[in-house]
Design goal:
Elements (H helix, E strand, L loop, with lengths): L2 E4 L2 E4 L2 E4 L3 E5 L5 E5 L8 E5 L10 E7 L6 E4 L6 E8 L2 E12 L6 E8 L3
Parallel strand pairs: 6-7
Antiparallel strand pairs: 1-2, 1-11, 3-4, 4-5, 5-7, 6-9, 7-8, 8-10, 9-10, 10-11
Length: 121
């Protein structure tokens, strides 16, 4: 499946984007999830989910999930020892499996569970 779940809401991927250090997925209405690496992965691997404020090592990933309509943004906390599994499909495409991990909205202090099963379109 090509989805991510934030709290009780499931989002379906409409498109992907990438930069030199991030892999991003968006639904049709602009909600999104961003995975940030120290460098875009070139080989399959397992990455430690860390706090968004942490310096990223070669085996780390930080995550941001956001809602376009609500303006709410949630950041990975890194406090639950979760690992994301990444499979490289091409130089611009990844498959990512993320089990439930805690993310937090710094404005409201609300914490939600985030999970993802992202694949190539």
């Amino acid at each position: 499946m090509k989805t991510w779940k934030l709290g009780t809401t499931t989002y379906t991927v409409n498109n992907y984007a990438k930069s030199s250090e991030t892999f991003q997925a968006y639904d049709k209405t602009g909600n999104g999830i961003h995975f940030s690496f120290s460098a875009f992965p070139t080989a399959d691997g397992v990455y430690n989910v860390v706090s968004n404020s942490a310096s990223l090592g070669s085996g780390d990933v930080s995550i941001i999930a956001f809602g376009s309509a609500t303006g709410s943004t949630y950041f990975s906390t890194g406090g639950d020892n979760i690992k994301a599994t990444v499979k490289v499909i091409s130089s611009s495409r990844l498959q990512i499996a993320l089990p439930d991990t805690w993310v937090k909205n710094p404005t409201t202090s609300e914490s939600l569970k985030l999970s993802a099963s992202l694949g190539d379109l």
